[in-house]
Fold:
Amino acid sequence: MVIDFHTHTFPDKMAEKTVAHLAKIGGLPPHTDGKRGSLLESMNKYGIDRSVVLPVATLPKQERSINALSAELNGKDVIFYAGGIHPDCGDVCGTLDFIKKSGLFGIKLHPDYQGVHFDDPRYVNIMREAAKRGLYIVTHAGIDVGFRDHVHCTPDMILNVLGQLEGVIDNRLILAHMGSYEMPDEVLCKLCGKPVYMDTAAVLDLYPDKCVEIIRKHGADRILFATDSPWKSQGEYLGIFENLPLSEGEKEKILHRNAERILSVK
Ligand SMILES: [Zn+2]
Structure:
């Protein structure tokens, strides 16, 4: 059983344009065309049993359609969805209630694409209310390849939020890109051991040795296998992961057991 906890798809009619735009600003060639059907094809081809799609509301007006689509498609087959919420959401509680009621496991935040810092009071409020409802919060963390000169979610901002929401957000926060993209040394000294999950998306091929160091220090109980498809290849990532010097027990936790707990699936 393999679960890819971090993927992106776009509605068919806008996938081509969106993927081309994101590929250009990030300088990353895509491995699929970003359509849901193409993710399913990739999963079939490479032996990925389940994937989690993380949509981002880049404008408040997108929340409603994103969440309606996530609610409709979540768990219908082998793909699960997070909900989307924007920092300028006019009805945080109502939006989160809808996400919870729809059976979604959590929300996705993207500080760079939503134009706020991770420890912004609006985000802190959203995260407090989400955690209170038993929702998980996935956030992009570290450098974003599209906005290299300004990091909107640093390890220090994460520590600030963990301090403010101590006892509320414990084990509900999922930090993408192994705690912070392209900042593994800061992750090692500041975030390892904190009550957070980290996913392997987009960094496993960049610095696999650092990833192993982080997994060893943080513990395999709170690491999730993830690719960031279409920006990385699910096949290549599974190959790299299988070759990491980890025990079979650790690999099982990272490949599916931890994700099953979060998604409430077996
Ligand atoms: Zn991503």
